[in-house]
Amino acid sequence: MSNKQPNVSVVVKKDEPIERALRRFKRLCQHAGITKLVKSKRYYEKPSDARRREVRKQLRNRRRAERKAQERMQRKLSRARKQRRTARGPAPAAKAPAPPASAESAPATAATASGAQA
């Protein structure tokens, strides 16, 4: 931010409620960065602390940008997969499971051969 102090003014219109004009003024102050400037100048901040804060802010922004890029890539890949699926046509039907083996064709186990009943 430059050394020039921001200048914001609001002209209250005829029959305009003061609350609305105040809201407009607050919005303009936030847009001009006055509220941020006032909060930062409220207390003295050592230059080393200011540098550390700025580095952390840059790191946070970089991580957020990487995360957003990763999310965009995931959306792009899933969209491409979806388009490939629809381009191939409907998925082939799964094979029907084999019918269960009948008791006649199944080999006799030791328990059934000895005549033990469950």
Question: What this model shows, in words?
Answer:
By secondary structure, the protein is mostly helical. The chain has two domains: 43 residues, no CATH class; 43 residues. The protein contains four helices and no strands. The longest helix is centred in the middle third of the chain and has 42 residues. The radius of gyration is 36 Å and the shape is elongated.
In summary, what is this structure?
The protein is mostly helical and 118 residues long. The protein is built from 4 helices and no strands. It has helices spanning 18-32, 34-41, 47-88, 110-113.
- The helical percent reads 55-70%
Average pLDDT works out at 83
Coarse structural class: mainly alpha
The coarse silhouette is: elongated
Q: Please tally the helical runs, counting DSSP H or I stretches of 4 or more residues.
A: 4
Number of domains: 2
Unreliable runs, pLDDT <50, ≥5 residues? none
Rg, rounded, reads: 36 Å
